[in-house]
Amino acid sequence: MTNLMNAVGFYHALPLSNPDSFLDLSVPVPEVTGHDLLVEVRAISVNPVDTKQRLVEPKIENQPRILGFDASGIVKKVGPNCTLFAPGDSVFYAGDVTRPGSNSHYQLVDERIVGKKPTQATFAEAAAMPLTSLTAYEALFERLAISKNKLENKGKSILIIAASGGVGSIATQLAKHVGLTVIGTASRPETVKWTKDHGTDIVLNHHQPLQPQLKKYGYDQVSFILCLNNTDAYWETMASMIAPQGKICSIVENESPLELGKLKSKSATFVWEFMFTKAMYQTPDLLSQHDILTTISQLLDQGVIQTTLSETIHPISAATMRQAHRKIESGQMIGKLVLENY
Asked: Which one Pfam family would you cite for this protein (predicted)?
C-alpha cells in the first residue's frame, strides 16, 4: 500500500456549478489507532445529509473536507483495541459525521459502528444500506419504542411520510416485518409502485390532505408516525393524526418553533432521530450500531428485507460526485444512489 490515496473532496463550500465544488485529490493514507479499522472502500452511497454537509465550510484552512456517510469495503488494518474484525473482512457502515468520510480509497472507522457485509449482497448493494438502515431501525425500535413482537403490534399502524426514499424504504420493510399496518406517502406512479413493492399497505398522496384520505381506508388516527420530510409542513397534520399516547419521530430539522402543546391532551410523544448521535457523543451504547448492522445483514441474507439500491454510477470521481449530488438535490430520487470503484 502506498502512502497516498485517491479521494474526492473540497476546500470551500461551493455550488455544484463551480468545478471546484468537488476535486479529485491525492491525500495521505491515515494510520489506525484504538478501535479504528482501515477499510479499502469499494462502494459509497450518497445521501441527503451529504448535500447538506457540502454547504458547510471546512473548519481547517488548507485541509480538504472529505464527505461520505455510507460505504462498503474490505478491512486492511485494525487498531490495537479491535476485537470484532480482522484484515480481509468485508464490511459496511455509515461512519461518523465528525471524521473524514468514505469518499476516499481508504477510510478509518470505529469498529463499534461497523457490520459484516451481507454475504448475499454486492458491495454496491451493501453500500446503499447502512445510514438508512441505522436511521430506520433506531427510529422505529429505539425512539418510537415499537415492539419487535408481532402479537403486541396487532391492530397498530404507522404512517411513514416520504416512504419511497432511502430511509422510508427500509422503515417500511422493518415495520411490516414486525406486524404493523404500514401507511406511506408517495405521489408519482413510480414512487407509489416502489413503496408498495417494499410492503406498504396503504399509500396516501402527499400532494393532498392526508387525514381525509386515511379516513377512506377506515382509519381516524395512527399509532406511530415517522416523518422523513419537512417537519414544519406536516406538524399540524401529524398532531391531528397521531393517536392518544401515540409517538411521533422525525429526522428532519425544523425551521420554525413546533407547537408541542398540540400533543399535550393526547399525552403523545415527539422525538428526534439523528443517526450520528452515538458516534458524535461517544455514547455508552455506541456498540449498538454494530449490533443493528449485524441484524440488518442477517435480514438481508435471509431475504426478509431487500437492498434499496436503485442506481449505480462508475467510477468514484469528482465528476460523478457532482452528478450524484445533483440527482439527490433534484428531489426525484427513489431508493438509493451508489458510486462504485476508483
From this structure: ADH_zinc_N_2
